[in-house]
Amino acid sequence: MIGYAFMGKAHSNAWRNVASYFDVPAFEQKLLVGRDPAGVKEAAAKYGWSETATDWRTVLDRDDIDIVDICAPGWMHAEIAIAALQAGKHVLVEKPLANTIAEAESMAAAAQAAWANGVQSMIGFNYRRVPALALAKELIAEGRVGTVRHIRAAYLQDWLADETAPMSWRLNKETAGSGALGDIASHAIDQVLFLLGDRVTEVSGRLHTFTTRRPGSNGMEDVTVDDAAWATLSLASGAIASVEVSRVATGRKNALTLEIYGDKGSLLFDLENLNELHFLDATAPTREQGFRRILVNEPEHPYLEAWWPQGHIIGWEHTFTHEIRDLLLAVQNGTAPSPSFEDGLEVQRILNAIEESAAAKSSTIPLARTTVPEGA
User: Fold this and answer.
1) CA atoms of 137 and 152, how far apart (whole Å)
2) In the predicted model, what is the mean pLDDT of the chain?
3) Tens digits of per-residue pLDDT, 249-265?
């Protein structure tokens, strides 16, 4: 695994626990890579990794490394992922896929070439592994909400609401690529595509930075990414999706909310109550209609057979355990993991179109159906 900060901690927890709950092929947490020798050794001891290294380039030719898990910042994804795939390693990479369309296309092409040689790759949109959202997808696919007319997706946080919050790499376009757009709108947009099994055909968007300068190591520094973003997405099915994301929504800590409205029913979800899904069956008699709360903790619900008795809720960290489980089973069975790098590229194209629209005063930007160019 490359990187041991926030995402590295979450992924390490998943690698450490997955075999205790799911029937997965045997593996070993072999090597943790980080730039600081003392820091990476401390993290490895804490998180269960056998060895450490400070340069990822020196370990890709090792025969005892089969999977590379990339938890480094987005600006490093392309170089590491492409090199790992070319070295014959299966790859998991955190979202967003990359910081630019060109990098994302190169990664998707490398994944396509590696797949032909039996090498797997997956992007870490972990919210696909929330049992309640996996159940929502099943209900939509079964026709329980009928034809989806529109969907509202919002991802709201407040960790930058304070104007004195310090500058970081996440607030610099050169290192982060974008702000709330790439960081959390990528999750919201992936959920729209995942839940509906649809594709985006047109985009209109707006970006805004509320605090343009923040205290840094050299005094006040310019913030060069967005604090919040809004978008309207037209889908091939005829449905419309509205997306709103913010890192300055005071009082909202990690609220990914989804509302799906069909002609036969509706679904509501809030990540801050991730064990619950609310479902309205519009085919029931009017006098009986109303949203009902489903506590998604039954063994019949996705992933829940491995965990606790009914009513004993699971948490955010379990989504990564489910992600690692699915990756390991895909590698074992030779099946394509989901979401793929091509799925990540599609999200990247939508994010890019939102930026393009925002720069053109929210003009509508069409998205043509595209394929990964050979040798990109």
Assistant:
1) 15
2) 96
3) 999 999 999 999 999 99
